[in-house]
Design a protein that fits this description.
Blueprint (H helix, E strand, L loop, with lengths): L2 H7 L6 E9 L2 E7 L4 E4 L5 E7 L1 E4 L10 E7 L6 H10 L3 E9 L11 E10 L3 E7 L26
Parallel strand pairs: 2-4
Antiparallel strand pairs: 1-2, 1-7, 3-4, 5-6, 6-9, 7-8, 8-9
Length: 160
């Protein structure tokens, strides 16, 4: 039985760590879903301590509808990121979420390619912070991006 078979069948000692990096402005928060703090190496070689937190994730669907959103809920018992997320959502500051997975037997690199999503919206309560992050919705973007209109190019009126 391979390690992947054991991982997904839950019959081995390995576990998958789902980690979240929340970047708000110049500040980064590193959280891991679970009860234990872990130290992992990022894809750029930097070693980071991920703090255990009550996190619930709904990963983006792999479909063709154009809106692939990650939904994230963080327990706000310790107030780890609530004040920064609150400030970011109030002014719609630049915020991003990077999701990585690690296997407990190899914390030297992510087990899968990490993906980074821009924070779209969110809200917070006394108990939790909920964030929705996603990619650019390609289906709702115009092509070509630059439109040739009469206001910008009045000579178009005379083309037959």
């Amino acid at each position: 039985m391979t390690i992947l078979n054991r991982l997904y069948a839950s019959s081995g000692s390995e576990i998958i760590y789902g980690t979240v990096q929340i970047d708000v402005g110049t500040t980064s928060y590193y959280l891991v879903k679970g009860w234990d703090d872990i130290r992992c190496t990022l894809e750029n070689g930097q070693t980071v301590d991920f703090v255990a937190a009550a996190i619930d994730l709904a990963l983006p669907a792999r479909n063709k509808d154009g809106t692939q959103d990650l939904k994230l809920a963080i327990g706000n018992i310790e107030g780890i990121v609530s004040s920064q997320i609150r400030a970011s959502l109030n002014v719609l500051e630049n915020a991003a979420i990077t999701y990585r997975t690690y296997v407990s037997t190899d914390l030297t690199a992510p087990a899968a390619k990490p993906f980074t999503l821009a924070v779209k919206s969110g809200f917070w309560t006394a108990e939790q912070v909920q964030i929705t992050a996603g990619y650019l919705n390609v289906l709702d973007t115009a092509w070509p991006r630059y439109r040739y209109t009469l206001a910008d190019f009045p000579g178009l009126r005379y083309i037959t």
